[in-house]
Amino acid sequence: MLARVTPPPLPRRIAHLDMDAFYASVELLRYPQLKGLPVVIGGGRRRVDSVLEQGADLPIDQFPRLGDYKGRGVITTATYPARAFGVGSAMGMMKAAKLCPQAILLPVDFDEVRRFSRAFKSTILEIAPLMEDRGVDEVYIDFTEVPGGQREGGRVLARLIQKSIFDRTGLTCSIGVAPNKLIAKMASEFDKPNGISIVHKADLEPRIWPLPARKINGIGPKADARLQALGITTIGDLAAKDRAWLIEHFGRAYGAWMHEAAWGRDTRPVVTASEPVSMSRETTFDRDLHAVRDRAELSAIFTQLCEKVAGDLQRKGYVGKTIGIKLRFDDFRIATRDQTIAQHTADARLIRQAAGQCLKRVPLDRRLRLLGVRVGSLAKPGELALRAEAPVPVTGELF
DNA sequence: TCTGGGGTCCTAGGACCC
DNA sequence: TCTGGGGTCCTAGGACCC
């Protein structure tokens, strides 16, 4: 009898690709005279120095310096020469300014960053169709079934992608290829910038276990601190603990996941498409605002935030049903309130109205540092029509 | 002058329904 | 009067990620 013989499945090869110092590298393309210098991108508000309008010919000594910056905000990206001074992503600007006042400071150009983001992603898609978007500067790519994706554990394909991106954009990236997303993510950091790292199952003990537990994507500062308190520093330490013990200390889901992660196990697929769950806009004020004394200013900002979210929803073709606000007080405590309204909307006034009611439920005894507006439970208007989301039926007639 | 902005997912309690 | 489950939705907070 004839049997259909299915070939054995190919071993999974998953790549994680991370653009090197992305925001900064994009600016270096525009100002090549800054190459090799400490440059940081960031600053809370978009305070574009007028000198930058001069464009590409601006002499180095005329660029704005980190040490001259006054204001709130954090570093988005630092070039490698700036990192040598200890400056890095998410660091407060004031702290960074103390470490490296002479660094050149440039504002983020979101349009330009998005343009290059689209360019590098479309370059990848021409080579490998299964790509998962993980933000402006990161993606996962499934190499498994791509022709040549298995050669040298994925190195050949990784090299091709790296070169194609560079030829198209002038930007470098680092790639890790491994049996799954979890390990690939760690591997892409092994040889930065402009590196490629190939990791196999057998590398778990020598290359993964010595790493700090914090390197696992999903173990953040809080979990890491708790692990340290329990005497666990490396991924190997974590792997040595038994599952039940981890569950005891971290709960059923998180404890079990930690155990799997430490053993390099991860079956998550590369997801090529997803729908947004929520959209939001928030802003940190130049100075902390008083709910009563600065009422007019707050109210105007509040309305603008609602208009921006509404604009985002409309532009992207979504409506939402859960309207929420977020406050950050001067002591950094955060409060959120939300309210689910009767029907989905993308209307600025309806959002403002619901958000206003949320605001009334927060005790405003401290000054405010940040205000945000969020719309969740998103849907596409067209799909709601199919589901026939109708007005709430009139009650009474049935009784 | 420490500490941005835009997200996702999880937990946990209460309401409400079956 | 007390005692049940399960399931879903809503809300608030928190951890984490880019």
Describe the secondary-structure layout.
Elements (H helix, E strand, L loop, with lengths): L13 E6 L2 H9 L8 E4 L32 E4 L1 H4 L9 H7 L4 E3 L3 H18 L3 E3 L4 E5 L12 H15 L3 E6 L2 H7 L8 E3 L5 H5 L12 H9 L5 H6 L2 H8 L1 H11 L15 E12 L5 H22 L3 E10 L4 E12 L2 H13 L7 E9 L4 H6 L13
This protein binds a DNA duplex (18 and 18 nucleotides) through helix 3, helix 8, strand 9, strand 11 and strand 12.
Question: Which labels suit this protein?
Answer:
399 residues, alpha+beta, Alpha-Beta Plaits, MutS, DNA mismatch repair protein, domain I, DNA polymerase, domain 1, 4 domains, five-stranded mixed beta sheet, four-stranded antiparallel beta sheet, 12 strands, 19% strand, globular, DNA-binding
